[in-house]
Write a structure and sequence with these properties.
By secondary structure, the protein is α/β, with parallel strands linked by helices. It contains 4 helices and 11 strands. The termini are far apart.
Amino acid sequence: MNFVRYKSVGFFVFVTMMSALGATIRVPTDYSSIQAAIVAATTNDLVLVSPGVYNEAIDLSGKAITVASQFWETGNPTNVLTTIISPSAGLSGVTASSGEGTNSRLIGFTITGCSGLTQQPFTATRDRSRSCNAA
């Protein structure tokens, strides 16, 4: 009888932990752009971006999500150099101005050719981004 009770508690803890982790949304597999994946993401989701040049500006839209290159999974700094956010001239590469907090994270990107990072009050935990390098 105790085994059944512990098994039920273990399943509950597992399901609770999985819901706290959120879904993984892959770019470009699930969505062709980082911004489209951000729009689809909900609290605690991971937007995982494959290496490539993404000619877009992104806005975290106040969401408590993680937007990360494959550096997140591999720890390989090459993923930082090969996953590039490159917006049109004069645009901010990344905007985080809608109440983002410490659960809004941008990790492992090179951001080029933009006017700056709009940030209020955004904390990029474990961020290895190179913010707005001149291209």
